[in-house]
Amino acid sequence: MSEHLDRAFSPASLGQLPLKNRIIKAATYEGKTPDGVPGEVLKEFHKSIVAGGVAMTTIGYCTTEADGRINDQMMWLHEGVRPQLTSMIDELKTLSPGVKVSGQLAHCGNFSKNRKMQRLKRPLGPSRAFNMLGAPSGLPFAGAMTLADIDHFVQTYVDSARFMQSVGFDAAEVHFGHGYGLSQFISPRTNKRDDIYGGSLQNRMRLPMRVLEAVKNAVGNDFPILGKMNMTDGVKDGVHLAEAIEIASMLDKGGIDALICSGGTSSFNPMVYFRGESLVTGMIEQETNPIAKLGLRIIGSKLFREYPYYENYFLEDAKKVRERVDCQMVYIGGCTELDSLEKVMQEGFDFVQLGRPLIKDPDYVKNAKANPNYKNGCIHCNRCATMIEAPGGVRCPLNDPQSPPLLATT
Ligand SMILES: Cc1cc2nc3c(=O)[nH]c(=O)nc-3n(C[C@H](O)[C@H](O)[C@H](O)COP(=O)(O)O)c2cc1C
């Protein structure tokens, strides 16, 4: 094994948290929390991931309050799920001694189809907006947060971070990207405020920086806070790399332990972070309404911009971010094959997060350590990502003999 791969599989510390290697499961909301409960299905999935040898798994998209959910099947962090989370984390750590568990702290902001809002009647973001996702389910508009809403929003992150620490999580990943709540404040595309939370970058970062400071104060220094951020929003008038580098520098100075540099906006341009086969392929497969299915076949190709897949597609931009920060850097994006892992390590990144490669092969680490010619097998068809609301949630269709062949090839 080369010295760089050897480094990937050797112990390292994330902030003050010892990890047994440098491979972390990326946050991939798996649609395995029916009615918002992290029960057996989610546990079995993460058991397979930790048994495969990663150093840390991440429970994706844990929202900071009930109204921060995109749909009502998502989990929000509250006392009602304490027993399930505690027992899941205990079991994961027993199954794979030394493994760590992180959770992604997220809030949808203005982008939701959750009709079971508890406090609010409609989603809220930085400014009034059309809520494309909610339109079919009767939530076509999102409102603008008041200053009191903003204070409440920060407090939900504090309460959730403390809750995570109390149920046994080892780290938290704050989602600053992909067009969700905090990202909506950062992006000039969605933040049209004219108060201290809008306008200049300093102002647009005021809420994210408040969240970071409050969360860090709440959990202390031995509980690492990672931040997932956008290097580009992938939309007109959004954040681009030059501004993203300033954003990274601000988060770094604010005490973030590690940055994960991604890109894209779920509502407008998610293919920036997926690359490869359009999500439409899987959406057509999953659609049960024949009229909607036909509609998708006719206009589907226009719904998503094309971004051809290539390995390590965020690497060059992530290197530019890294030049400006002192915190640790976690590489994410298309690190599927061993050559790519080797390259990321050679470039000096501290850790790597894997999403689809671990959905394809939860035993990635075990298999790659055992076989220098290991091939992962993920073909970036992105059909896993369209199973979020399918029965049982996300899985790799290539691992499932019942799965239909890829539409693009039929
Ligand atoms: C099924 C699925 C669900 C995802 N859910 C999330 C999520 O909840 N939060 C997030 O930040 N990214 C999410 N992502 C994006 C991944 O974390 C990652 O950024 C992307 O898949 C690129 O990494 P990869 O090439 O290793 O898959 C999801 C991706 C997939 C495939």
What does this entry look like structurally?
The chain is α/β, with parallel strands linked by helices and 410 residues long. It folds into two domains: 3-275 and 310-398, Aldolase class I (TIM Barrel, Alpha-Beta Barrel); 279-306, no CATH class. It is 35% helix and 14% strand. The chain is built from 15 helices and 13 strands. The strands form three sheets. It has an eight-stranded parallel β-sheet. α3 (82-95) links the parallel β4 and β5 (100-106). α4 (147-167) packs parallel to α7 and α10 runs antiparallel to α11. It is globular. The structure holds flavin mononucleotide (FMN). The site of flavin mononucleotide has 22 residues, from β4 and α14.
For the termini, the CA-CA separation is 40 Å
CATH level-two architecture of the largest domain: Alpha-Beta Barrel
Give the low-pLDDT segments. none
Main beta-sheet strand count, sense and barrel state: 8 strands, parallel
CATH evolutionary superfamily of the largest domain: Aldolase class I
Q: What percentage of the residues does DSSP assign to strands (E)?
A: 5-15%
Total strand count, please? 13
Helical residue percent? 25-40%
Neighbour order of strands in the largest sheet = 3-13-12-11-10-9-5-4
Instruction: Spell the H/E element sequence.
Output: HEEEHEHEEEEHEHHHEHEHHHHEHEHH
Q: What is the global morphology?
A: globular
Attached small molecules: flavin mononucleotide
